[in-house]
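In this section we walk through a basic example: taking a raw amino acid sequence and producing a predicted 3D structure, encoded as discrete structure tokens. The instruction is simple. Fold the sequence below.
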Amino acid sequence: MKYKILTEKDIYRGNLILVNAETPVKSGENVILSEAAPNVFLQREAAFYLTEALRKIGGEDGIVLVSGFRSRREQSEIYKMSLSENGEDFTRRYVALPDCSEHQTGLAIDLGLKSDEVDFIRPDFPFDGICGEFRKIASDFGFVLRYPKEKEK
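The resulting token sequence is shown next.
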């Protein structure tokens, strides 16, 4: 079996991109965005598939799109805001540093159960009801759950 040695150029090709504290977003990435909901943008293909997934389960009215693409500046502002409002321990646990957030790729979306108040940093997305239905079909549309309970590291 032949193996290909991946170069930095290979790592940043396509939609399979690793982004975390050890592998920050490559600066200057071009992301073509589409509006998935008012003021929530995703990479064009991701927005299409998210819309299709929500349509399939009739989730447009029960699931809210909380946060999609974020610029480096937005991610920095969110991090600073969380530090002042929630403290360092909480922020390090739940908010990525600028350039270390998958949101900067345009491929990540935070979803929440529609309610009067939705927590921007940790939206409620239960395992039952309409959210449970989305969880069941998410992978059919290219979405995976990041940071499941006890797998946050």
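Looking at the output, two observations stand out. The helical segments are 8-11, 44-57, 72-86, 88-94, 129-137. The chain has a mean pLDDT of 86. In the next section we compare this with other chains.
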